[in-house]
């Protein structure tokens, strides 16, 4: 085709193109309207359309607006989602059509939400729901959820129920387990006393936690209704009894002070009778107080000397005749440096402390107790102040136990009672329970209070007597005695031939070395000579198992045992990847023993080589003894601390929690070798001198007479005390002439089979090779007492050979 026949193509002008676009938009709009009309017809049916032919109807329940709050658009996403679901629920329940739902939404919107609704054109409920969620229901990022959860705390006037439910919702939004959820809920509670109380309790789910919190609140409210006890002290009452404090803590004093007298004012049941009994101390009239008295204020009068112009507290006769008669309070801010103030460290955390030799216990503020990161155990104990030994001044909230360091003097397992922050003027108050420890000595030199180890030499002590009167004394706080109970001969086993004089000597010896005996787990020793390591084979994986199934009764028993272990510092909670199961076994006394199944851990543990004591040499060395003393270590394995790297490997799982051992437990592969190593280190010199014989945790002291035994026992006590080991007094025997040891009976230099011979006599007839081998192993232990034992047992031994049929006939029975 030639170029002459090609038609000319001209581009549209701008106006023509603009007009064409508008026409296309109009057509598109028309199609959208037609589609909307179709949707409207489809949405005219209720939101819960039915497939049957029932007549369509809808209902409007009375006062429906009361069930739906007005939505402003400023609410959080979860509130907006809940608001939308509430409306949809009402629509489904009452079978509302789409138009009614949109009208109902419009009538329950305000502010920004209403403006948003009016700016849109909603032709169906599905369109509204989609756009509403897009704008108001925003999916938060996980980091935002964590920030919201951490920052959520109870407000000043907010109820516990409102805070609890909102906090739990936020915690579940970040998928926390219950133990972590519990910690975050208690951290945000406004009342520190409530949080400390709940921390010491046992909870299995949020319902139990909520019940405990509400029960504490109920008791607190009830205490607020009791008659108020006003304490007369030398503290500014206007600051002590401010309105804000009395409304929240009406039943608790706001200062930890000593008192000289206490009066109780009981309010009358009605306001009229209460008003009529109010007495004015200015005119002695009724119906008003001295502040509102219309008569002139009478001059001050001393109740001690009856003179005017001063009160009893400033009476000059008191200063001259009875110096420092009234007990005052040690408070922060006293003029001059306080020599009894100390910087102390608890669990490597530093605090401001005060030495109070008048207090029988050590106290710590609740805020400081949390900073120590030590296990906080519930412990409600009454604490008394000077002047009133019947009514407790305050009550402890809990207790912690940990390492305390003052002036370089380090002590382990120091107990601190936790009190509210305003109860004591410093973070930590050090009392007699620490000052009276045998390894502690202290003295005052010039203006310095010096704390040292008891075995240190003091070159000189300067005592400067200050005759000036300061009128300041330390407040005395008294609790039920925390000192160790004295021992008597009734607490140990005594030989029948021991006379009364010898018993008195033994009583003195026992109490002289009282520190080497433990009557309970709290007194259990812990050596600092060795620590146990657990070395695993290369490429070993953490042992992680599920807890064994237990009954509800066994579950409670396990919880009781673990709680006691936690209080004693034997175990602590952990998040270790290791988890070995536990099982309860019956003890000889009918009680339960909690055992950890360490078989999986032991299978990948590298064995340690260490010589075990030889039974024959032990027995032969005791044959010359005429009198014996037997000592038994109290939970001997638990007196060896674990290395930090080994603690997580000993973690065990119960139906309620995961714990790790702080000390060496029973059942570990290398525990016997580690314990023998410790005993050789502690008693090695005495063993070589022939003073003592030791097999695992059984310590035997042979002697020729009572005096020889006492001298040897004291040397053993000294060695155990230096090693910080403790004995079980109920299993210790003194002055016995007959001894059961390692299954044998030793008496008058002769060795006989022990009580286990009865087990052999009553042993049931073996039914297979396994039972027969057990029987032969038991009898072989006493083969030294049976002549020609090998010949006698030969027919039975032959049955244990491999690939032989099991034939148990009369020949075998006779043997």
Decide which structural class fits the backbone: alpha+beta
**Second rung of CATH, namely the architecture of the largest domain:** Roll
The share of residues in extended strands comes to 15-25%
Instruction: Identify the CATH homologous superfamily of the largest domain.
Output: HIV Type 1 Reverse Transcriptase, subunit A, domain 1
Number of domains: 7
Give the strand tally.
Answer: 27
Mean pLDDT: 76
What overall form do the CA principal axes indicate? Answer: flat
Task: Give the C-level CATH assignment of the largest domain.
Answer: Alpha Beta
**Helical fraction:** 25-40%
- Unreliably modeled segments: 49-55, 225-276, 319-336, 456-482
Give the strand order of the largest sheet, numbering strands 1, 2, ... along the chain. 3-4-11-5-10-9
Number of helices: 27
CATH topology annotation of the largest domain: HIV Type 1 Reverse Transcriptase, Chain A, domain 1
Largest sheet: 6 strands, mixed, barrel
Radius of gyration: 41 Å
Terminal Cα separation, in Å? Answer: 129 Å
Description:
This protein has 815 residues and is of the alpha+beta class. The protein folds into 7 domains: 12-40; 44-136, no CATH class; 142-224, Non-ribosomal Peptide Synthetase Peptidyl Carrier Protein, Chain A, CATH 1.10.1200; 271-326, HIV-1 Nucleocapsid Protein (Irregular); 341-463 and 471-478, Cathepsin D, subunit A, domain 1 (Beta Barrel), CATH 2.40.70; 490-752, HIV Type 1 Reverse Transcriptase, Chain A, domain 1, CATH 3.10.10; 756-814, no CATH class. 35% of the residues lie in helices and 15% in strands. It has 27 helices and 27 strands. The protein has a 6-stranded mixed barrel. A 5-stranded mixed sheet has the order 15-24-19-23-22, sandwiched between helices. The protein has a 5-stranded mixed sheet with strand order 16-21-20-17-18, covered by helices on one side. Strand 25 and strand 26 (744-747) form a beta hairpin. The longest helix has 30 residues, at 14-43. The radius of gyration is 41 Å and the shape is flat. The protein starts with 13 loop residues before the first helix and ends with a helix.
